[in-house]
Amino acid sequence: MGRALTVPNARFKPGDRVRVRMEDRPGHIRTPWYIRGKTGWVERVHGEFLNPESLGHGGDGLPKRPLYLVAFEQPEVWGAYGARRDKLLVDIYEHWLDPA
Amino acid sequence: MAKAHDEDTHEHPKHELSPIAKRVYAIRELLLEKGVLTEDDIRRQIEYQEARSPANGAKLVARAWVDPAFKERLIEDPKAACAEMGIDATSINEFVVLENTEKVRHMVVCTLCSCYPRPILGRPPDWYKSFNYRKRAVNDPRGVMREFGTVVPDDVEVRVHDSTADIRYLVLPLRPRGTEGLSEAELARLVTRDSLIGVTDPLAAPPA
């Protein structure tokens, strides 16, 4: 999936198990509801990007936040899901993730 | 029934702008009035937006099918591979190409809005932005694909990408069987927009 990216201050590396924070707060958020509280693993470190939760409200987006491709087993997300091998992959910023 | 129909017709006269359209025109007038943009800037931007089309994605895929070294570069550094083909992908923050194999296939959605690799594919189709697709693509991708006429065998893993952030995804579909004799240009014609989003396969080889 493309060249490996190195983010010096990244908290997680590919293979690490992570849980998405179960937070509810107002404002511009890029972490979908359905994935909050779910456990998966880091597939790829995408890089560092301006924080959309700041940009969305006229801020400068700094400091940049590491962004991860996080994979989930479909049955972990939805419970009832037929094809057990299928995966759901979501791009999630570091401050939404805890080690699991 | 007739009454309801009449009311419906009268509620949405075609000559009246929607509130959003009115707002957009008002903002445009202000930007022109204050000298932030010129009419020429706007015209050029419209031309740029309309020039981008799935043909760009089809070109990339067809080249990748005929040239393994290009395919490697496309997956390794998609933006550089686009530049090589004369496609401007610089407005994308980070671009990822998802390669389908016999055992794994990918599908792309943006459940939060309508994130889409516009420089490569142009504007997204209406269904891509619909609540129905955005909701069901993540929890019933096989059912959605079936509605597009694509039946995925049980032993193939389906990987749905929800592009929620700065990454834009393009699916690199499998080359259809029986296309060995086709030229790159002929192959490009088999690569449909929907196959680049991942909900269908490319078209089958034309009968010999």
Concise summary:
The complex is a heterodimer of chains A (100) and B (208). Chain A is mostly beta strands and 100 residues long.
Content of β-strand of chain B? 5-15%
Low-confidence stretches of chain A: none
Structural class based on helices, strands and sheet pairing of chain B: mainly alpha
Helical fraction of chain A: under 10%
In whole angstroms, the N-to-C terminal distance of chain A is: 24 Å
Strand order of the largest sheet of chain B: 1-4
Strand coverage percent of chain A = 25-35%
Q: Using a beta-carbon cutoff below 8 angstroms, give the protein chain pair with the largest interface and the number of residues from each chain.
A: A-B, 29 and 27 residues
- The first-to-last residue Cα distance of chain B is 53 Å
Query: Poorly predicted ranges of chain B (pLDDT <50, ≥5 residues)?
Result: none
Largest sheet of chain B: 2 strands, parallel
Number of helices of chain A: 2
Nearest-integer average pLDDT of chain A: 92
Oligomer: heterodimer
Please summarize the sheet with the most strands of chain A: 5 strands, antiparallel
Task: Return the string of H and E elements of chain A.
Answer: EEHEHEE
Helix fraction of chain B by DSSP (H/I, runs of at least 4): 40-55%
Principal-axes shape call of chain B: globular
- Please provide the count of β strands of chain B: 4
Features:
heterodimer; A: 100 residues; mainly beta; five-stranded antiparallel β-sheet; B: 208 residues; two-stranded parallel sheet; two-stranded parallel ribbon; 12 helices; 49% helix
